[in-house]
Amino acid sequence: MTDEKETKGAPEKKPKLNLNRVEMPKQSEHERRHNFDEVALGYTWEMAKEEASRCIQCKKRPCQQGCPVNIDIPDFIAALQRENMEEAAKVLKRKTSLPGVCGRVCPQELQCENACTLNKKGAPVAIGRLERFIADWERTQGSATMPEMAPSTGKKVAVVGSGPSGLTVASDLAIFGHQVVLFEALHVAGGVLMYGIPEFRLPKEIVQREVQYVQSLGVDLRLNTVIGINYSLDELLRTDYDAVYLAPGAGLPKFLGVPGENLNMVYSANEFLTRTNLMKAYLYPEYATPIKMGKKVAVIGGGNVAMDAARCAVRLGAQEVYVIYRRTRAEMPARLEEVENAEEEGIQFHFLCNPTAFLSDGRNNVAAMELIRMKLTEPDESGRRRPVPIPGSEYILDVDTVVVSLGTSPNPLIPSTTPDLNVTRWGTVVIDERGRTSKARVWAGGDIVSGGATVISAMGEGRIAAASMHEYLSNGQKKIIPPSPQKDDDKTE
Amino acid sequence: MYPIVDHEVLAPRVHRLRVKAPVVAEKAKPGQFVILIIDQKGERVPFTISDWDTDAGTVDFVFIEVGKTTRQLATLQPGDTLLSFIGPLGRPAEVDHYGHVVSVLSGYGIAAMVPILKALKEKGNTLTTIVQAPDAERLFGQKPLEELSDTVIWALGTKGDGMMESTTVAMRKLLNQHPKRRIDRVIAMCSLCLMRVLSEMTRPYAIKTMVHLTPVMVDGTGMCGACRLSVGRTNRFACVHGPEFDGHEVDGWEVLMARRCTYADESILQQGFQCRGCSQW
Ligand SMILES: Cc1cc2nc3c(=O)[nH]c(=O)nc-3n(C[C@H](O)[C@H](O)[C@H](O)COP(=O)(O)OP(=O)(O)OC[C@H]3O[C@@H](n4cnc5c(N)ncnc54)[C@H](O)[C@@H]3O)c2cc1C
Ligand SMILES: Cc1cc2nc3c(=O)[nH]c(=O)nc-3n(C[C@H](O)[C@H](O)[C@H](O)COP(=O)(O)OP(=O)(O)OC[C@H]3O[C@@H](n4cnc5c(N)ncnc54)[C@H](O)[C@@H]3O)c2cc1C
Ligand code: SF4
Ligand code: SF4
Ligand code: FES
User: Fold this and answer.
1) ipTM metric
2) Long-range contacts (CB closer than 8 Å, 24 or more residues apart) made by B171-176
């Protein structure tokens, strides 16, 4: 395959070591600008075999340590090398119920693949692509591998939020033999995997397959139910449930707080992505939810969310899409792969500038924005170079649609309706190293704790909490909880 | 799935649906709303709860046929189901003993205000209710309003039967009697433009005026920011901090109305979107 890494000078002892990974085929730029189909097409059987053969089965298993859920990576690759797909799938399922998701959206370059031995000399084994290949094989195979289920313990657990963190805890606890009810506020399970990450990066069918798998373990999924409104947390604890896991995520959109930000056609990324992905506005009018978008779209921000919004805008037919980021390309938090995809799709990046105002067309629709140029300061003690505005450098950019993608904060609903749940001043729920919150019988994890991280870290925290919850539930150390001092009937604020 | 148990046509293009949704009925309070989705391809659309029955586990709402979803809703019959029915959303309306409360209703507000009026009545308030409708034929839901209110003023678009011509004239007359016949509070659930005008009318008198705002919504739980508006110079989300707000503190009505009309070209049938003098037309 193509030579991309320089290996010159490295003393090459084992000639067998293949330092180049097998590339994964993608839809061409021209084609994919006009559809929401998945961009990356996945390995063929031959490609997967070839890539798996690169793994040298390190005794120390550094890759496994790099994975937040500790997947037995060498084992599943060994199974692939032996062409035993069923075995490979089983190994994966031991540690994750969402391999089809992680194989696609994990920042592998920072995790498992970063730790891979081959990374020192060449390209690491494409662990994520192999994981995806196995998950896809299993899915098209029809029957999913079922884990061994422990006998019923008679304990009942509520899991709040059906994103990756909640799904992980629900499936783990179900496997341990507990009865699990999974509450989801939206009409579909999956969290950000459904409403945020677009179809062309993570087909929704795959997420739903994995949700069905979790349900097949006996998890009772209750959609359209908002904890904090339909039931308060205290009510759950007081009534049916022995323990609760909180994973409501970080869904509160941040705004810049500059003049004109409420003008018509200024979206939050959450609204823009929810309309597009969850509600399938790209299939309007077959699907009833519309999305209005102009010709010149500015996306503010430099993370994965901004890349997703920008790439959706291209596919929805925008003529020009700008990404406005206040630092430089090197500081962008988005995955490099996605930045490159965005560039290939014709998205224009404007670095070192920041909006200071949005201007109206006279009828309260956005018509332009005022930007100020930024420069990076010298690194401070933390080593970060802060962007500062250059006075007098303001300029105007014509745009007719803006998507503010500055990230999100933790969902305030549950903390605000649960006075004795400790939160930080950023609104994140405080937990100890085993996922326990300040409130007895309540654990938490995922974005509500981290404030916004990754799918796999949300799952990893879920795994730790599930083990701790299982321990608590098995020891039967059900503490006597004093009755809550407040009536929670009218705490819907 | 949420079964429809009753469907009544109240007036031309005005319907009342009763939906089985025990979880919603259990917690419903006056002034709250639901978001429903008809089927897999449907949109999430908000409606104010007009009545509920905790024992039977049912929730009522009244809607006016204006566009795609409401027209589809109008075809549903008992036995049909809704895919999704989430609620009760938003904060309940503020209810206390104020004294003399004047309320202004039009459109679905004629039905959706009833639970609020009931609660206000229970608190011992004197109620004057101004009801606006295009004409007598398109009026509905008179009975509970007459029962609950001490005075009802019918403000119909056409003259006749001693009915007044316009809501603002009726309101002006009441304000002229203030403070001799004191008004302690105004509460409005009608078109955005009218609520804005009413807020401006009561401002010089410093009569607290609560408005029920209806920006475009998507999730209804505070996640998307579509429903944001500026109140007292801070950004608020109508779905979690509202939908009831102090009309004197709402800034940027113009922007609110523009945002509310984002999808006006898709729904040109909606008269509410074509108000005279609106910045959008
Ligand atoms: C656009 C976008 C792109 C991203 N791209 C990547 C990527 O490429 N790779 C990666 O690793 N990470 C990515 N992330 C981050 C990742 O998606 C999140 O870190 C992860 O989804 C967090 O999982 P979670 O389970 O904590 O919460 P979420 O996925 O947010 O799920 C929370 C769920 O809880 C529900 N809920 C909330 N409140 C309540 C309540 N009161 N009652 C009941 N249910 C409730 C919500 O509706 C939601 O379904 C991305 C995020 C976004 C927004
Ligand atoms: C909190 C709240 C409570 C409401 N309560 C009621 C009620 O009790 N009875 C009732 O008849 N109507 C109510 N509405 C308005 C109702 O949601 C709209 O009439 C409905 O969305 C129209 O949908 P449609 O598909 O039939 O119309 P279309 O015109 O096809 O809708 C097109 C788009 O505009 C949006 N939209 C259209 N009209 C409105 C509106 N008035 N407010 C907000 N978004 C709108 C829709 O969501 C959709 O995206 C309420 C709105 C809000 C925000
Ligand atoms: S889950 Fe993510 S980090 Fe773990 S092995 Fe798979 S791709 Fe790597
Ligand atoms: S570190 Fe890399 S080469 Fe070694 S076992 Fe893991 S994947 Fe294979
Ligand atoms: S409707 Fe989404 S935040 Fe209010």
Assistant:
1) 0.92
2) B171/B102, B171/B104, B171/B130, B171/B198, B171/B201, B172/B201, B174/B102, B174/B128, B175/B201, B175/B202, B175/B205, B175/B207
